[in-house]
Specification:
The protein is an alpha+beta fold and 176 residues long. The chain has a six-stranded antiparallel β-sheet with strand order 1-2-3-4-5-6. The longest helix has 16 residues. The N terminus is likely disordered.
Length: 176
């Protein structure tokens, strides 16, 4: 009897957890309907969990030509401006040196990326024209129609020059 009751509570908790905000992984985003999971990874800094990342692409195979999507489910509260600043630092670290463009991109990201709370999910979707659409928990929050931005932004995670090569490998499905 106790075991059965425990099992029912566990199943109920599992079912409810799939309905919680921040875990949609693009279910509400029409462009993602045909995409399949490529890989997943957790971003940690020292002993702090920052976010869980999941990469989606057609047939589960990523190509930088698009379409593809990267969903980040935040595991802690973070300031949107700080996320934008860190994104530009990572883009700069990849060798981008046009400071005027980097400042403009930082302004765009600051306007788009909100402060996030634990379990919020921000999904970046890159289409075939290399335009980027950003979603917060499945709701469109901004668009950048610059192919160079799209390559640089997603390069934070997916470019060979990323500062997190093991995270990149897991996102791309490399289990080595």
């Amino acid at each position: 009897m106790k075991r059965s009751r425990f099992s029912r509570w566990w199943l109920l908790a599992l079912a409810l957890s799939t309905l919680m905000p921040g875990r949609s992984h693009g279910l509400a985003i029409p462009e993602m309907a045909t995409l399949e999971r490529v890989g997943a990874a957790r971003m940690q800094v020292l002993f702090w969990n920052i976010y869980d990342a999941v990469l989606f692409a057609p047939q589960g195979t990523w190509s930088d030509e698009g379409p593809y999507a990267l969903a980040l489910t935040y595991l802690r509260d973070l300031n949107g401006q700080a996320i934008a600043e860190r994104s530009i630092e990572e883009i700069r670290r990849q060798g981008r040196t046009d400071e005027q463009t980097l400042r403009r991109w930082q302004k765009l990201l600051t306007e788009i990326i909100p402060d996030v709370r634990e379990r919020d999910e921000i999904t970046g979707f890159a289409d075939e024209q290399a335009h980027t659409r950003f979603y917060l928990d499945g709701r469109l929050i901004g668009t950048v129609e610059e192919p160079e931005f799209t390559r640089a932004f997603f390069g934070i995670w997916l470019d060979e020059t990323t500062s997190e090569p093991s995270l990149r490998a897991r996102l791309l499905g490399d289990q080595r």
